[in-house]
């Protein structure tokens, strides 16, 4: 069963049962409340990922309940209402609602909106992707931006040259054979003579990032085996 919990708040028990059946077919965990008091209590207990909220409730309005819920949770709140006037939608959304569905509604539309809001919420809640950049004694490589800098001056590598350097710099303790590098970059099996291609590309990369006057070797040739990134260099 999905770990995503959905709270349904509607004083019409038949509506709650109907929505509950729709959602459970999609493997969501569902909880129901028929008034504001129980909705607030259940919200505290289960911490739902989404709330479906009727505008008309017996104790307070759904809009007022939404304002209370927003003090407890930032999960998506989808309003249900028989009212279709624009002003009603504006009031509900201004109170903190994320969507507004008018009754009667189709099950497909409801499920599609629920999935869309949950998907967006998962994206927002996911941790930011860790930046992939490396800085070794004057050589700066940004893998996401496909940029290389040597002593703050940009170095223009071809796409294949960049891919080779990226493989080496991401795995500084590993020695790659020329056949392995060819297959990883070109995405095809290595044939006789392809190792020569890698030698040419490595030579070109070195010309661009290893000028003799600097005396720093970033790419090491392991005789009889292949190439590796110089992991003796200090990463800054």
UniProtKB/TrEMBL annotation:
User: What GO cellular component entries does it have?
Assistant: cytosol; protein-DNA complex
Which keywords does this Swiss-Prot/TrEMBL entry list?
A: DNA-binding, Phosphoprotein, Transcription, Transcription regulation, Two-component regulatory system
Its BP terms in the Gene Ontology are: regulation of DNA-templated transcription
Q: Which CDD domains match?
A: trans_reg_C
Q: Which residue range or ranges hold the OmpR/PhoB-type domain?
A: 131-231
InterPro entries named in the record: CheY-like_superfamily (IPR011006), OmpR/PhoB-type_DNA-bd (IPR001867), Sig_transdc_resp-reg_C-effctor (IPR016032), Sig_transdc_resp-reg_receiver (IPR001789), WalR-like (IPR039420), WH-like_DNA-bd_sf (IPR036388)
UniProt superkingdom: Bacteria
**Pfam families the UniProt entry points to:** Response_reg, Trans_reg_C
User: Which protein is depicted?
Assistant: Stage 0 sporulation protein A homolog
The record lists the lineage as: Bacteria, Bacillati, Bacillota, Clostridia, Peptostreptococcales
């Amino acid at each position: 069963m999905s770990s995503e919990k959905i709270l349904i708040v509607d004083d019409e028990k038949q509506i709650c049962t109907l929505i509950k059946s729709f959602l459970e077919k999609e493997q969501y965990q569902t909880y129901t409340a028929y008034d504001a008091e129980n909705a607030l209590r259940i919200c505290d207990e289960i911490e739902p990922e989404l709330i479906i909220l009727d505008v008309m409730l017996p104790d307070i309005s759904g809009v007022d309940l939404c304002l209370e819920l927003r003090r407890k949770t930032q999960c998506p709140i989808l309003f249900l209402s028989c009212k279709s006037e624009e002003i009603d939608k504006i009031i509900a959304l201004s109170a903190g609602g994320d969507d507004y569905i008018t009754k009667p509604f189709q099950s497909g539309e409801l499920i599609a909106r629920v999935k869309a809001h949950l998907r967006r919420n998962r994206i927002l809640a996911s941790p930011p992707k860790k930046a992939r950049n490396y800085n070794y004694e004057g050589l700066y490589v940004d893998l996401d931006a496909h940029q290389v800098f040597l002593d703050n001056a940009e170095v223009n590598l071809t796409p294949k040259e960049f891919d080779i350097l990226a493989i080496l710099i991401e795995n500084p303790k590993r020695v790659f054979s020329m056949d392995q590098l060819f297959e990883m970059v070109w995405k095809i099996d290595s044939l006789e003579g392809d190792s020569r291609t890698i030698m040419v590309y490595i030579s070109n990369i070195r010309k661009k990032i290893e000028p003799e006057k600097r005396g720093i070797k970033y790419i090491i040739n392991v005789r009889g085996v292949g190439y590796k990134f110089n992991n003796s260099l200090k990463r800054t």
